[in-house]
Design brief:
Helix content is 84%, strand content 0%. It is elongated, with a radius of gyration of 18 Å. By secondary structure, the chain is mainly α. Helix 1 runs antiparallel to helix 3 and helix 3 runs parallel beside helix 6.
Length: 144
């Protein structure tokens, strides 16, 4: 279990670095817009700040989903994790729609990829806990 969580977090750290890097690669017009109009997003100009924020959010989601995994039986866990995957896909879809507007379209494709990868990362966490529950049950059945 511990090795599996470590490998999940290694994947998430690598993915967070990629997300942070892509979010920092907005176009010149996008960076000017962030600097002039939306100063609260200035942290996105630095790849490591964006990566830390994304990784921190994923860690919070992982802790929540771990607690759900520990407290619930297989069927409830599967339903909750599947609903989290549905929410991640919904977030991905609405992010796609939002990036098709004129103002967010100016941020560029690399920036957009970072937004999409955020939701994919959450989906990976949910898939991990679905698979972990099934592996845990299979190993208990093999021991009995």
């Amino acid at each position: 279990m511990d090795k599996k969580l470590i490998s999940l977090n290694a994947i998430l750290v690598l993915l967070a670095v990629i997300v942070g890097w892509t979010l920092s690669k907005a176009t010149v017009i996008g960076k000017v817009g962030i600097h002039v109009l939306h100063r609260e997003y200035m942290f996105l100009n630095s790849w490591w700040k964006g990566a830390l924020l994304v990784w921190g959010i994923w860690i919070v989601l992982e802790i929540i989903q771990y607690r759900i995994w520990k407290r619930n039986c297989r069927n409830i866990n599967l339903a909750i994790q599947t609903s989290f995957i549905f929410l991640a896909v919904l977030g991905l879809y609405f992010t796609y729609l939002d990036f098709r507007t004129f103002s967010h379209g100016l941020l560029g494709d690399r920036f957009h990829i970072g937004g999409y990868l955020f939701w994919i990362g959450w989906g990976i966490i949910s898939l991990f806990f679905i698979k972990l529950r099934n592996d845990d049950i299979a190993s208990k059945e093999n021991q009995a």
